[in-house]
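Chapter summary example.
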Amino acid sequence: MKKIPHLLAKFRLLVGFMGERNQSGWWDSSFLAESSEAFLRPVFPRTSFQAQYRGVCESAKYIHDERIGRGRNYHLYRMPDAIEKLTEQVLHDSDFSTQLKSMLISKEAAIEEIKFSSTQNKESLKGPILVGDYNPEELEKILKITLGHYLRSFSDGSQCFPFMRLEV
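The structure predicted for these 168 residues follows.
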């Protein structure tokens, strides 16, 4: 479980970057663009990267919730509160933040990192995609499968919204 917050932050930023207006246009934001950092730095001098992260995550979460629905579902941008808190904390590590920023220098760099980090899928699926039941022990595997679905969609120009169902 210790690895999950780092993976989640990384995957959120990669998908968030690729989904923004300047790349794939899934959501109408540009929080991870260079101009955004210049705009946010005077307001958030020590935490501009965290502000960018929160902004892109909120934009993506809104679209995911709209397409998937809320309730007994989790997705890349909506996880249990304990995981959300841990994920927020890892962004305070300046070395980790620097590493994340280096993956967002271009569309090509982001796609390469997604390819490297994902479990790639052969079939192209669109819209909401159930990737399994939420299971903390299997979360790393499910997140890599989820990332593979995003990779496929970014490659073929479709939109997908992978999610996990919370079983009761």
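To summarize the output: The helical segments are 4-19, 34-40, 48-68, 81-90, 94-102, 107-117, 139-156.
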